[in-house]
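Side project, low priority. Logging it here so it doesn't get lost.
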Amino acid sequence: MDGVERVVVGYTGGKEPNPTYQNIKDATEAVLIEYNPSVISYEGLLNEWSKQHYPFNPPMKTQYKSAIWVKNDDEREVAMNVLDRIKEENGGKLSVYVDVEHISPFYKAEEYHQDFLKKQRNSRSFTLY
């Protein structure tokens, strides 16, 4: 995506330090996106996220909850506006389950999680569900 400079898979949102995939603790699987705001805005990123994400499933556990982590009140307002738009477009038929939380420490996931789909495409078999 134009303006996105780096995407890192990892864990955030918990109070327990150093989560891993095998020991996720109270963290959530997440991505850290570094971007150039002169090319794409924060709102632009969230708009793209909203096209690729299905926020209507109630969370079964913290590891897989849907969340947006924000740095400040401005980002919180943008995130809430995007979520309001999702609700409006849905006509209130389905509940939106997305937490908006203040940013917390981010822990990079294990290397085999980085560029996961690309690695799968390069293997002998690939199944996308």
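Brief comment: The helical segments are 42-52, 73-90, 116-121.
Revisit when time allows.
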